[in-house]
């Protein structure tokens, strides 16, 4: 009986993926149930699980679900030879080859950054992350870059939520400090964290150019604090140089 239930759940996940591949837009629980003939209660549980696992996004205002980039990247190796030279995976691979460090694609997930995809460092014993890992929005390099795209009001609301979630009182930020740091990052065009999100680890992050209306994403390099600090200029040049073709492709 348990085996049958597992097979049924797996079947529904695959049918969901095929459904979204067909409609190519966000969908509500009602639409999914009507199209696939699923019970509403079990569909709600399934979709919540896929959101919690980081493979789907949920828009609270519209109550719509949509597969996200993590899902696309986790299967993109199948068609890698068909991708353009500006593919995200190829970009990440180029950064990893030049630097030897871990490379991450990040996107906002509430008051956190979720690493949608991670290429591990050449030496995993020094710095290792998992795809799907969460980092604090206001304390991570990727998070600070994403915050540069927000309005003052959006930053204020997100900081309030982040401080409510943060159990360590010493890690809660005041609004003035947060705004000052975000303004500096916006001016610099990059962000660097040193042990504030991952103990002993540092990260450099830049925004990835995206088409209008697409979710904002970041490209980050992560490694031991001493190495990232020492090689900061080289790492920033590498990120800037390799992201440039992406920016040109988006503008075009």
From TrEMBL:
GO biological process, one term: negative regulation of DNA-templated transcription
Alphabetized UniProt keyword annotations: DNA-binding, Transcription, Transcription regulation
Gene Ontology molecular functions: DNA binding; DNA-binding transcription factor activity
Keyword Transmembrane belongs to the record: no
Alphabetical list of Gene3D superfamilies matching this protein: 3.30.450.40, Winged helix-like DNA-binding domain superfamily/Winged helix DNA-binding domain (1.10.10.10)
Record InterPro entries: GAF-like_dom_sf (IPR029016), HTH_MetabolicPath_Reg (IPR050707), Tscrpt_reg_IclR_C (IPR014757), Tscrpt_reg_IclR_N (IPR005471), WH-like_DNA-bd_sf (IPR036388), WH_DNA-bd_sf (IPR036390)
Residues covered by the IclR-ED domain: 69-252
Domain named HTH iclR-type: residues: 7-69
Record flagged with keyword Transcription regulation: yes
Protein's recorded name: Helix-turn-helix domain-containing protein
Naturally occurring in which organism (per UniProt): Burkholderia anthina
């Amino acid at each position: 009986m348990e085996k049958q239930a597992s097979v049924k759940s797996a079947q529904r996940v695959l049918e969901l993926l095929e459904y979204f591949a067909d409609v190519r837009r966000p969908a509500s629980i009602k639409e999914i149930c009507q199209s696939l003939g699923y019970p509403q209660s079990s569909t709600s549980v399934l979709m919540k699980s896929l959101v919690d696992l980081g493979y789907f996004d949920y828009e609270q205002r519209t109550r719509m679900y949509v597969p996200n980039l993590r899902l696309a990247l986790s299967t993109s190796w199948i068609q890698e030879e068909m991708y353009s030279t500006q593919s995200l995976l190829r970009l990440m691979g180029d950064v990893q080859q030049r630097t030897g460090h871990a490379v991450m694609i990040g996107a906002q997930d509430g008051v956190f950054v979720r690493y949608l995809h991670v290429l591990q460092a050449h030496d995993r014993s020094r710095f290792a992350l998992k795809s799907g890992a969460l980092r604090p929005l206001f304390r991570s390099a990727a998070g600070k870059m994403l915050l540069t795209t927000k309005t003052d009001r959006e930053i204020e609301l997100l900081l309030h939520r982040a401080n409510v979630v943060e159990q360590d009182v010493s890690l809660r930020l005041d609004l003035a400090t947060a705004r000052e740091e975000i303004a500096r990052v916006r001016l610099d065009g990059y962000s660097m964290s040193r042990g504030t999100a991952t103990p002993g680890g540092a990260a450099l992050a830049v925004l990835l150019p995206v088409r209008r209306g697409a979710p904002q994403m970041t490209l980050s390099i992560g490694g031991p604090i001493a190495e990232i600090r020492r090689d900061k200029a080289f790492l920033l040049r590498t990120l800037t140089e390799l992201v440039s073709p992406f920016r040109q492709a988006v503008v075009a």
